[in-house]
Amino acid sequence: QLQLVESGGGLVQPGGSLTLSCAVSVRVPSIPLMSWYRQAPGKERELVAQTLSSGIKNYADSVKGRFTVSRDNNKDTVTLQMNTLNPEDTAVYYCHAMKIHTEGRADYWGQGTQVTVSS
Question: How far apart are CA 100 and CA 7, in angstroms?
């Protein structure tokens, strides 16, 4: 079973920075697509950033220029560096992995980590 464990969430003041990490139970290069999602209370879960095994990275418009997603193939982790945080970034952040098996596509989710941006 592919397992994802997020860490690094917490309380940060507006304008501050925070780095989230996702520990992956398999080799990261074997995963075609790794993503970060977030969900605020009363809102739908939204895609924040994703990294393809090809090296392509995509970001939501709301975080472009502030967030950076990266893969550490040696440590089997995926990180989300968040800078210039604002209260609108407050949410539970989830790590997501997509793999293609012979029987079809499979999706995996972490348990989530809370990020709160407040003074």
Answer: 26
